[in-house]
Fold each of these.
Amino acid sequence: MKTQVCIIGGGPSGLLLSQLLHLKGIDTILLEKHSREYVLGRIRAGVLEHGFTELMREAECGDRMDAEGELHDGFEIVDNGIQHRVDLHKYTGASVMVYGQTEVTRDLYEARDRMQGKVIHNVEDVALHNLKAATPPYVTYRDSSGAQRIDCDFVIGADGFHGPSRKAIPRDVLREYEKVYPFGWLGVLSRTKPVNPELIYARNDRGFALCSMRSQVLSRYYIQVPLSDKAEDWSDAAFWAELKARLPQDVAARLETGPSIEKSIAPLRSFVAEPMRYGNLFLAGDAAHIVPPTGARGLNSAGSDIHYLYHGLIDHYLNGDDTGLNEYSAKALARVWKAQRFSWWMTSLLHSFPDTSEYDRHLQSTEMEYLFSSDAAQASLAENYVGLPF
């Protein structure tokens, strides 16, 4: 097989790039390790910044998002029972869209189907070749028919943290930076009405909690737990009791509980790989960077990668200009590190850290007090939360 751009990874990043390029007449083949059902079964975050929603509309995939998603002009932060609202629209003139990542992925798959896009599932042993050679690169893999090969101009690695793309960069070229946090998030998805019209981030001496949503009848809640905990250690009743203990009394009193549809623990970590380009390989999304979910930057950071790649590839194919591709790694990483800073700051502000000194606890409280005494501090928070410019 032959194509212009071979994309590895069938999550929202790879699908979005494939869809955008298709609309410009640029041919792609997308490879995915798992089945479509498996990909759509993954429960992920659902707060989309303005730039990501604009990309979805440009990809002709925004109709259901605009009809069913919810625009939020703000969110709440609770500091040991005291509630504060961050007014995003006041400080930025922008909003965020609450729309589940699973729904984003579903919309993108349906668009690829409509356009008869080439998406190949259940591939194994994916390997990348000739990335810096004088001859064009190619990708090999195995499927139910046996060994396969795709010749292409460029390879896009959107295959997540454990995929083969980043591993194809030589160790003496790749630099990796990582911070592992000493706790995780226990998340529960329930078919219940959200407890609040907007998200609630709660700082409590017992640990962090988040009240989120997927729709008006589907809620997503999280509590901070030790890394030693397992999801099966937590009954639904124990989860709801602990969540209520971390929320203001009036919020806890109106919390609607019910059986969990999904329950899992996600460890929190930060990760960046540099560079994000090696020859004709370009990394995007979790293949190159991961953030804690606290600031809702994960999918949105991947979206900014796709924005830069999309425009760089358009300029290459339609205008004969490689400036965007040559600048991709530097431009993408500049925004990635800003997202890392914001996610680290939100995580540090809102969580209880084991073995924290009294000095650090006082600093954490002072940071919170300063945030809500300063319009400039809230404006900075709002600017980062709705998404920095591409």
Amino acid sequence: MTDLFINYRRQDCPAATGRLCDRLHAELGADRVFFDVGDIVPGADFVDTLERAVAGASVVLSLVGPRWLQAAAGDGSRRLDDPQDFVRREIELALARGTPVIPVLLEGAGMPAAEALPPSLRPFARCQAVALANDRWEADLRSLLDVLAQRYGIHPDPARAQAQPAQGRTRTAPAMAAAMVADLAELLAHPRALIVRRVQDGVAAGSGGALLPALAMLLLCLLLGNLLLGVVMEGPLYRWVVPGVALGLLAAAALSAMLAAAWRAVRRAPCWRRVAPPFAYLYGGAWLYFCAGACVMLLGLELAQPHVLERYLAQAAQAGSAGLPTASALLAQALHGPGMAGFVLGLAAWLAGGAWCLRGWAVFRVALNAGRLAAWCATLLWLSLLASLGALAGWVAAA
């Protein structure tokens, strides 16, 4: 599970390949760049490790040199025409998963024409390429790093680097806080990259290493989200924050348990330890997006008609469920001017949060090394469980 996967052919411009990988290691850190020569441990399954690395990468850099297209096997046949060729299989897997593929042209190479590629690789010819010329190496490399940072969120993280403890020393509270804030910002912008990296770090740290940081991030998101709601709602903050955080933790535990059960039914193996940490990150981020949208909506209503929320809650509490339509009419009357503006901006925040969830949901395929079909089956089964419980709760309440 890394940010960058380097797809390359060893016989094609090895000097430029090594130079580029050394620089990427220096800029981003060796743990964020997968380069098979040094990243596959002795005794590991070579094919399985490569496929897992491609599946877990945020971006694939495909290095194309002058001999990339016509590279031949021992019998004289073109390597790209072999379905088992590693370069071909890695690109096919990335394209099939929707992972961005950036061709990097080395030593004056050009992009191959679609007609010169096998049918499964022809979408590769439409990928926007980046050229690294020997006489403009630093400028071209800086442009590539800027693209990775601005477009895909893959950049050196100073706060994370400063937060790493020196050997034998304990992290300070300010360093931990800075790391949490940096992680939160990256989570809201690039969920998959952050979650994959944190889960990987946690697995490497041992038992509990992935779950504890995820739980800390969930607590932070729940706290910030309920603070946003408490700012615009009537009454003291603790009235919203304490119950909101407690209920959020219970809801996250229940939902992750059901999702783990759905994945177990699909994969026929225990999955909770792989499902719970990514779900904690996704639930926390989704809650923040929801609370931000709700806060903007409620603030707009209050600006349009002061104390409308207080009157709504009082009337709804007095009349019960039967009086909800009448109480809701109070809110409808405030949908003008700032009230309407707040509604539109809040709805935009919710739509952005929905798109964020869809982008981040793919992390479960990476965490469980699953294909699209298994992911769809597990998700649909989970949604079915939620719908069944909702229907059961409605029936009990009606009875």
Amino acid sequence: MHRAKSLKSEILLRLVIPLLFFVIVDAVLSYFVTVHYVDQAYDRWLLDSARSLIQEIKVRQGKVVVELPPEALEIFKWDEQDKTYFKIISTEQEMLAGDRQVPEPLSTETDWSLPVYVEDTLYGEPVRIVSMRVALKGTSEKVFIHVAETLNKRRAMMTDILLADLIPQIMFVVLTGIYLLSGLKRGLAPLHTLAKHIAGRSSRDLSPIPESHVFLEVRTLTDTINDVLERLTQAIATQQRFIANAAHQLRTPLAGLKLQAERALREQDIAAMQPALMQVQSSADRMSHLTAQLLVLARSEPIGGEYELYPVDLCALAKKTCMEWVPKALQRDMDISFESTEEAMFVQGDEVLLRELLVNLLENALAYGKGQVTVRLAREPAPSLAVMDDGPGIPEAETAKVFERFYRIPGSPGDGCGLGLAIVKEIAELHNAQLKLGGVGGTCVRLLFP
């Protein structure tokens, strides 16, 4: 199961991780900078030690000698933390004084115009070595001084400097993290309050969420939720109105059905039952037709989303539907004509609902026409379907009302329930089709598909 992420943890990580990264980068840079300046400081000290030995080198009778009293040697080597070693050599006499184990620069191309610094090990300890050549008057002999010192003071100073630099930064990151955490808790408090407010609502409470204490960045979310609640309220109101109207419409045929059944039960003769049974059949047919229309109307009103529309051959669909309705037209002494090219005409739609749309238009046309019903398809300027009859037509004052549910023009013949054109309108809107009503000497209902 996928674990939900915490907004507070996500924000905290996105803020603290860069801080830690910068501290690490700063620590690495501080380390190299500290090493550089610590080496510079102690290298000067080491060089001063080497230069102090120059005073002890003398030239007597053309020969180089080193006069280093024990007191001077003790002062030279005195150090509380590090050990100091030295070696003085010449090209002719080799070892003049000091410790023979002190390493020397190995490169033969060493530039002796400046002191040479190297790092090596002596007696198992790492040391820093300075080497320099001494030019003496009165002799051509080359003399070299090598002074080595262990690295304890350097390491101690580096540790002190790095700790002095890193500890405040680490404390800064910790304090910043604590401050951010408390700030996030305070900042997210309105969201928790909003969540508690929504969770404490009744399932029947669909009123908008108040935005008085909502951040501007969260207002987009609350606006979206309020929009959904408003649409849900409208959908529920529509469904409740639909159920109320359906119950009202079904009550009449059910009452008639019950009344005629009771009438038939009181009769003893089969011939006397005949009128009541015919009324029962009529009421049952009407209720069946009404129920079918109500189901189609409910299906054309999806609450949870939109229908997925697929390419439908409108020409084949209309032709097949017209052929199915020819027997019903003949029963009423009417003709159905179909006008279209033989080529397929595809539109984006739901085949079942498009058939119901055409069925309702044909049913209305056969109910109110006099003798001729025409179904016409056209491709220009847009794919269109038109159903025309030669009936009395619809008065102009009634054109806006006939698409309302359960509305019938006063004085209309037949026993319809006023749902036919309402179903047509719902299905047309579902297909984003433009619905036009008109006609001269009859009624013409035309749909223009996108």
